[in-house]
Design brief:
The chain has 249 residues and is α+β, with helices and mostly antiparallel strands. Helices cover 34% and strands 15% of the residues. The protein has two domains: 103 residues, Ubiquitin-like (UB roll) (Roll); 140 residues, Fumarate Reductase Iron-sulfur Protein, Chain B, domain 2 (Orthogonal Bundle), CATH 1.10.1060.10. The protein contains eight helices and seven strands.
Length: 249
Amino acid sequence: MIRESAYTFKILRYDAKEPGSGARFSTYRIRVIPGLTVLSVLIRIRDEIDGTLAFRSSCRSAVCGSCAMVINGKIDLACRTQVAAFDTDTIILEPLPNFEVIRDLVVDMTPFWEMYEKIQPYLIRKSPDPEKEIPQSEEDRKRIDQFVNCILCACCYGACPVLAKEPGYLGPAAAAKLERFALDSRDERSAATLEIVNNEKGVWGCDTLFRCIDACPKDVRPTDAVVGLRKSLVKNRFRKMFGKANHEA
């Protein structure tokens, strides 16, 4: 016989279309069987108890990243977080920080996607298209594996303390994606394309507090990307300086 346990779910509610109503918590008492995730409970609440509850979800497999939220004070994916993992019977759910709330747990991710688009997150080629695929060694592949794992869930964006004070900051995910393509042996973007992040709202704005690393559900370690991009920018600067000096000599 499967033993159920009762949990209290407190969910922050807010509707941007009705700002006068303010933010509030709605409380639901739910019996949960072992193995159920926070997302499974949310779906049950919406389908069986309160159809007005708003949240995002899709794959239920920690692949799409759409169910990122704050769960008992920790940013994580609701689909991979089991209710029984907590040592309390009260689960508090809040939307991702550093975003405008649209409704309940749904946030406006427009700034996140704008920064993502800004860094040109795709392979840039200058050579003629090859007749077959471009080969890549195992060593070259390993250089980008860490950053390829990013699922664009925005957990790192929500955890970033820099974005809390500077909304125009690039953000950890965009930095990780830029480093992913800058390191790709098949990419031919020029050194000048990195200049877009060579400022205080780019990689130099990071305080290296590693909050993004703590929040990332895929071990991408965005801070590593920031450090890598900083090194590349410094190397490019020295090449430019010494190249010019050699030319003048």
